[in-house]
Fold Putative glutamine transport system permease protein GlnP.
Amino acid sequence: MDSSSSLLQKQQNRTYFMWVVVFFLIISTFIGGLYYCTLKIDYTWRWYRVPQYFFFKDNIAVQSESDGSVTTIETTETGTTIKIAADGGKELAYTFESDDTRVYEGDLVFAGDTLGVYQQWKVGILLQGLWLTLKVSFIAIIFGILLGLFTGLARISSNPAFKWLSITYIELVRGSPLLVQIFIWYFVLGTLINTMLAQYGIHQIPPLWFGVASLATFTGAYVAEIVRSGIQSIHRGQTEASRSLGMTYAQSMYHVILPQAFRRIIPPLAGQFISLIKDSSLLGIIAIRELTKATREVVTTSLQPFELWFVCALLYLILTFSLSMLLQYLEKRTMYS
């Protein structure tokens, strides 16, 4: 008996190892085929140029604030100090961490002239786009959860006004493409709202918030159906038992039904939120420089489509995978709590 089980275990291990080898062969073949195709089209990989789109050193010019003449230029280990005798007898001092000066002692300078240049680290366009994608997605997820929760509860309500309004909202949103909804939010609702605000002298709403609103309303409709199905998956006996103990409908829903439903809706919510992060790439059409639009701008200027689109895909993968791991952790916590 032991020998037969040991033989079976060895066969399973050999089979498992064989399919692992098959997996790596497929991945290697794909990468090799892609590289071969780039050779055929005479494409030169320039991965060394990618880091500058995350962080780069920018030249910052130190400019004179007024007309005058350079009196002294002092250079030390920490930087350079340039003193200018401005018109009116006032002395101005400019200190910067560099010895790259563009003037000499005794030179006449005017307002706006460059006195020196120093370098400073700045965040690149890809990292800016990644941060904006994360910011927009996070805000849209929060509002989408709130909107979906209340809409899902209204969907199963006995009140016909709440129920029919929720059904109308869900069907309208789920029945039209997100791209069309973004256009409606930005070009129609955005134009109307900002025009009214301008008439009353109120500051206009930036395009970012119309993009967030479109993503939140789109996500809220799907979250509402997820919440509804999660609540209805709980047996009616749970509600009846809690009501028999003297709980109100709201107390029964908050203390008994929703905690159980939450455990069941985490997996579909994870899929919906991952889709939201990827759908945020559509906001580039309304001049929001999220990750995809930032990548497109860099590709246009650098002519490096292969490297940059691979990097863009990898950044989206990092965001979605991190969110997936977080929701799996929450699912395990709620499962064993």
User: Anything to note?
Assistant: The first helix runs from residue 2 to 40.
